[in-house]
Design a protein that fits this description.
single chain; 129 residues; mainly beta; Lipocalin; eight-stranded antiparallel sheet; two-stranded antiparallel sheet; 10 strands; 0% helix; globular
Length: 129
Amino acid sequence: MSGNRRTRWNDSNDGWDSRSNSRSDYKKKSGCKIGVSKNGRQYITGWNVSKERGYITFIANRANDIEYSSRGGKIWHRYVVNISIKRTMEKRVVSGLFDIDSKKLIIKELGMVANPKGGRGGYFGTFNK
């Protein structure tokens, strides 16, 4: 071997394909970002593509200025989450909880979490608890 990183078999040249480690062929499946609107209110947007649910988008806005605290000492904000599911053409409005410390929005009704600080542009996907 000449020192190339070889990872998968390529039938076109009857050998190992050394290009498969590039990040250019990686297809992103979700994204999430956090922002501030013109009137100074924080919002979160995100999207997810999966075989099971199809293409899902959401935008979440803070419901009120009340801070909620859990027994463990975490501080949460309540968000109103507008969800659009393209496969079924369904639009839903659900409630979500935003953890101030970790900057994660949990949408329990869907079993999904939105993390704007996730790698490569955020994460919006399922969580296990």
